[in-house]
Amino acid sequence: MKPMMDQVSLVAAIKRCTRVRELRAIHAHMVRANLTQDTFLTSKLIESSAVTLPGHVSYAHRIFSSILHPNPFMWNTIIRGYSISDSPITAITFYRDMSLCGISPNSYSFGFALKACCKLLRLFEGQELHSQIVKVGLDFETRVLNGLIKLYASCGCMEYARDVFDEMPEPDSASWSTMVSGYAQNGQAVEALELFREIQAEDVRSDVFTLASVAGVCGEFGALELGKWVHSYIDKKGIKIDLVLGTALVGMYSKCGSVDNALKVFEGIPERDVTAWSTMIAGYAVHGQGEKALQLFDAMKSSKTMPNSVTFTSVLSACSHSGLIEKGHQIFNTMWTEYKITPQIEHYGCMVDLFCRAGMVDHAHKFIQTMPIETNVVLWRTLLGACKAHGYKDLAVHISRKILKLDPTSPENYVLVSNVYASLGRWSSVSQVRSLMKDKTPKKQHGWSSIEINFMVHKFIMGDESHPEREKIYGMLQQMATKLKLVGHVASTVDVLHDIDEEEKQYALGLHSERVAIAYGLLHTPNGLPIRIVKNLRVCRDCHEVIKLISEVYNREIIVRDRVRFHHFRERVCSCNDYW
Fold first, then answer.
1. Could you give the CA distance from residue 499 to residue 365 in angstroms, rounded to a whole number?
2. Is the Cα dihedral 289, 515, 383, 445 positive or negative?
3. What tens digit of pLDDT does each residue of 80-119 get?
4. 333, 332, 322: which is closest to 293 by C-alpha?
């Protein structure tokens, strides 16, 4: 018979456990030695099974239930274990039971319960916790307040998160990081960048997650110079570019139109995972560099990194943007045959886009009709765009009706259908569709374009008169229009969705947001430097033609990222080959 171990030996043995089977053996030893009510030993046993060895919180639960009078540490440990488990709701239940049993929660209790609410996006329960935190006087504890900020940010309530942050006596680096990340994740890019500037002013050291969030925001805005500054800040502070930060920088440079810099960062990541590979492939795809995307895909497979669903979306998108029909079809087929990945709607969407870009409208139509999964309105919108581009008028009208029937609440659908009818000159149908749009849909999303000048992002809408330099901007717009006429430009007004005279249509086109942004860029960037524009919608046909001409007339490279892809305009040629 083995001799009984003392408390010190048992604690050391518990700490050495790497498998739950070993813990069970120690637990059995404690039962035989009548040590199950030893508070210190049992606490360590619960901690190891609930926290140290993930996936075994149910075993910790059974041990906890056998304790006659669990102490606050035990309660906190079991709440913590469930907060990081697949059943965070149980953490909230244990928190409530803790109070019912007369055990006062402390800052750890609140922190773990808030983590569970955060995972579940339970705003109401989180607000209840907030009230209790104030009631017991823990609203000065940085750890607790950081948990509240995280909760509100995760639930999309950034105003509440900011209120908590602003009332903190001494926010730490985690507080700043959570706020910046929260703004970034909730699409409040301007606020994220402003807060990051405050971080620099306060000389707070930024962590990897803050910098990754800021890099992501720079990417969304296409703010290349600010993104480069963030990269240089990382190098200056000696911050190691790990997988998370490296992947964020790759994404940032790709979205800012600097795929060469993206590749440099990618090549410097020591151990790349599937996300890093997929992000770089997606960068090549959105820039229309299909061959390079495929070469990288081959390198990924050679590195023994298994592609996932996202990887295939990026690769198929690259084939689509580069017109690689046979290769795209081959890769699509290998998803299941080689990797046992079932194609999802986004993969079928890439294939439809591939056929449509190649002018294979009938083939794309048949492909949609024979899909083994339910189609969505996005696929039909893609096909409708191809019908319009390639002159399939009857099919376009048929699909237009189908789209409005499938999704009668989306403003984008009505705009697209109006666009088709306008191109056919059916103005009565345009008016009817626009009338339906007013009755059945929310307000249409406004188009905007942005440009970064001297680390500041300037955002413009159509006919923008709010900018303090509007007189100079409109003077440049007039100069642009005059020069374009001299080289023979005639506006293509088929996409102007109003039954107005030709002169008014041409005037409306001349004030589109991307032209306003380009005018501002011509005023404020030195000759010879590229002008980089981000647009939230697809570039219209006339603006696309105009930007090609501007690139030649002003001898500038103009890089435009619209909702679909990048357009690199040089000497009257666009990288998209006039199909987007």
1. 31
2. positive
3. 999 999 999 999 999 999 999 999 999 999 999 999 999 9
4. 322
Q: How much is the pLDDT for 500?
A: 41
Q: Quote the pTM value.
A: 0.78
List of the chain residues with pLDDT < 70? 1-5, 440-445, 491-510, 580
**Cβ-contact 125, 151 below 8 angstroms:** no
Number of neighbouring beta carbons within 10 Å of residue 452: 21
Cα angle 579, 549, 291; round to 5: 40
Which neighbouring-strand residues pair with 383? Answer: none
So what's the pLDDT on residue 185? 87
Instruction: From residue 547, give the alpha-carbon distance in Å to each of 257, 311, 388, 568.
Output: 17, 32, 22, 10
Helix (H/G/I), strand (E/B), else coil: 526 = coil
3-class state of residue 94 by DSSP: helix
Structure confidence at residue 460 (pLDDT): 92
User: At residue 114, what is the residue type?
Assistant: L
Token pair listed for 194: 């402003």
Specify whether the CB–CB gap between 547 and 575 falls below 8 A: no
CA distance 113 to 93: 9
pLDDT of residue 503: 43
**Which tens digit of pLDDT belongs to each residue from 220-276?**
889 899 899 999 999 998 999 999 999 999 999 999 999 999 999 999 998 999 999
- Residue-level pLDDT at 508: 54
**Region for residue 79 given its phi and psi (left: phi exceeds 0; alpha: psi -120 to 50; beta: otherwise):** alpha
Please report the pLDDT score of residue 455 as a whole number: 81
Alpha-carbon distance of 516 to 449, in angstroms, equals 8
Distance between CA atoms of 515 and 522, rounded to whole angstroms?
Answer: 10
DSSP 130-199: HHHHHHTT-TT-HHHHHHHHHHHHHTT-HHHHHHHHHT-SS--HHHHHHHHHHHHHTT-HHHHHHHHHHH
Calpha distance 148→171 (Å, rounded): 13
Determine which helix (DSSP H) or strand (DSSP E) holds 307, and give its type and residue range. Answer: none
Fill in the amino acid letter for 564. V
CA 220 to chain CA centroid, Å, is 9
* Strand ordering across the sheet containing 573-574: 456-461, 448-453, 531-535, 558-561, 566-570, 573-574
Q: For residue 376, what are the contacts with CB-CB under 8 A and spacing of at least 6?
A: 345, 406
Q: How far apart are CA 199 and CA 217, in angstroms?
A: 15
Query: Which residue in 247, 196, 240, 266 sits closest to 455, CA to CA?
Result: 196
Q: What is d(CA 180, CA 203) in angstroms, rounded to the nearest whole number?
A: 15
Q: What sections of 407-461 are H helices per DSSP?
A: 411-423, 427-440
The confidence score (pLDDT) of residue 393 equals: 86
Q: In this structure, what token pair is assigned to residue 514?
A: 């991307």
Q: Which amino acid is at 292?
A: K
